C-alpha cells in the first residue's frame, strides 16, 4: 500500500477517528486505526465495539491496500509532521514508513484483515438536523446524565422522535434536563437511549455550523450519525427509559423571572463558603420583588439579594447549588423563568415555547429557621 | 477597621501577595494575608518565612486597624465579587464583613498582631534592572535548576554581580544555563544563591514592561526585590555555589549553525517514539552541510536530516532530547550556534556576545554502531 496525503487533511481525519479509540482494552487491535485503501477511496476506521467511527480521507492512492496502525503513535506522528505532503507506505511485513519532507518514520503495523468492520445497518428510518442543533442539544442536556454505572439507562440520553419533534432527555435521579426540537421528517416514532460517551465524542467532531446537516439513522441496536465525510455508529443502551411525563407538571404556586447571569454570579459567590464534601444547600428566600440567597457554613456566612419579578406565594427552598448552576449555564436566554410548588417539590426552569425544561429536586431544609 | 476599595485593585493586590502564601503549613497564621491599615496606607502582607511579599493597596481608610484573613477564602471572595466598591469592616471579635453591592460575607479573622512582620534589611547595596529583563533572565535559566532537594544549592540560582554585569546561573548536574546582563550600578561584587521558588513566583508578578524597573537589594541572608508598590523578600540559600568557570571552555572541534525552530521540531518528532521512562538518547550525526537525527526504540525508528552550516570535524553524539529542547525553546535567536569537542564532552549552545551559554552533557552511545 502506498498513499499520499496533505498533512492537514491527515491530521484532521486522524483526530476524528481517534474519538472511537478506547484508552484501555484487552484487544490490541482495537487500539489501532484501520487505513483502508482497498478500493477507490481512502477510509480510516476506529471501533471500540460500542462506538465506531469511519471517515473518508482526501488523498492519493498510489498502491491499493490496507493496514492497521497503533492509533496513539500514528496520531502523535501525524500531528507533529510539517505541513507538507505525507507518504504512507507498507512493506510485506506490515512495517509502515511515514515520510514527510526530510523526516522518515518506520513503525510496525498489523494486518488490516484483523480489524473488525463496522456492522452494516438499515438506512430506512432517519431524521436530519443541523450539526449546530445537535451539538447544542447535547451540550444543554449531557450534564444531567448519571456519572456512575449503577443504572445503565441513566448514563445515556433518551432520543425520542414523534410528530416532527425530537425530544432529548437526560436524568440522574436528582434532576431532569429536556430539550425539544422541531424537525421535518417522515420518520416513524422512535424511542432509543444513546450512550453519554457517544454523545460527548460526537459533539467534539460536529462542525457546529447551522448550515451543515447531520443525518441520524435508527436501527434496532444501533444509531448511525452521518455528516460530512464521516459516519459515527453507536450501540444503543438496552431497556425501557423512565416515564418522565408524569413527573412534569405545569401547576405552580410561585413563578419568578430573574436575570440569568446575575443569578449565576450570586450562586457562584454563595458556594465559595462551601467545601465540596459538605453538600451544603444554598437557601433561597423568595418574597415580593426580591430573592435572598443565604449560606451559612463552618467557613463563614454569606447573603445576597437579587431583584426578581414574582407572581404567587412567598417561598423558602434549598437547592444543591451545582444543579442550579449546571442548568443556568447552558441556557441561552438572558432572563429565565423558574416555577415552584412548595419546598419539598421540584422546581422547573423552562421557557414558554417548551424548548427546554430543567427539573431540579430541592434539598430538605428546616424552613422554620 | 473599615476600608473601602475598588474590586479590581483589591483582586490585583491579593493576587500578588497570594504568591507567598504556603499551600501547606503547621502555622495557621501563615495561611493568612495581613491587612494593615494602622497608619496612612493600606498594606497587604503574606509570608511563608522563606518568601515574604508586601504590597501597598489603593483604597480609602475609613477607620484604621489591622486584621489577618485566611488567604484562600479572602482571595476566592474578592475574585468573585462584582466590579464595584468593596467595603471591608471588622468588629471587636475580628469577624470581618465584606460587602459589595447587595452581597455580604461574614468570615472570621485573626488578630493582626499575631502576624510576623517581614525582617527589616539594610538598603545599601543594590542594582536596578528592567522588570522585563529580570523576567526573561529567570525564564531562560530556571528550567536548569534541580527538582529534587538532595543538593539544596542546585535548587536555587546564582546571582553574581561584578563589573557592571549580572550573571545568573542554574545547574542540575547534567547541564548549566548562564545568562549575562549588562547593568549600570555602583554595587560592590556580590555572589548569592536565590531559591528557585522565589524566582518562579516573582516572575509571575513582574509587569514584563521594559520601562518598569525592579531594584534588587543585597543583604547577608536576604534578597529584596522592590518594584511598583510591591516588595518581595527572599531568604537566600546558604553555602558556596559551584565553580563553573573551569567547566566552560571556548575550545571546540566542531561548530554548527542551525535554524532553531527547525531543530526543535525535529527533536520533537524524534521523541515521539520514546516513552518517558526509556531515557533513550537522540543521536545526532554531523557531517558536512547536514545533521542527521536518529532514534531507534521499541516503538519504531525515525530519522531526519537538517541543513546546517558546519566548520570543523564530523561528529556523532547522543543527548537527552529534553535537555536540548529546554535550552533551544528559551533562546530568542532565529539561528543558534552549537559547539562540540567530542562525543564524551559537553556541547555548548552560545551566542557571540556571551549573553547566554547553555552547556549540556552528552549521553554515552556506542559510536561504532
Textual characterization of the structure:
- By secondary structure, chain A is α+β, with helices and mostly antiparallel strands.
- The first copy, chain A, has helices spanning 7-18, 71-80, 131-139, 196-205, 260-270, 321-330, and strands at 2-6, 32-37, 42-47, 51-57, 60-63, 65-70, 85-90, 95-100, 103-108, 110-111, 125-130, 156-162, 165-171, 175-182, 190-195, 213-218, 222-227, 230-235, 254-259, 282-287, 290-296, 301-307, 309-312, 315-319, 335-340, 347-350, 356-360.
- In chain A, a hairpin with a 3-residue loop joins strand 13 (165-171) and strand 14 (175-182).
- The mean pLDDT of chain A is 94.
- Chains A and B meet through helix 2, strand 9, helix 5 and strand 22 of A and helix 2, strand 9, helix 5 and strand 22 of B.
- Strand 22 (301-307) of chain A pairs antiparallel with strand 9 (103-108) of chain B.
What's the short version?
With 369 residues, the first copy, chain A, is of the alpha+beta class. In chain A, 17% of the residues lie in helices and 42% in strands. Chain A has a nine-stranded antiparallel beta sheet. A nine-stranded antiparallel beta sheet of chain A has the order 15-12-13-14-27-26-25-19-23.
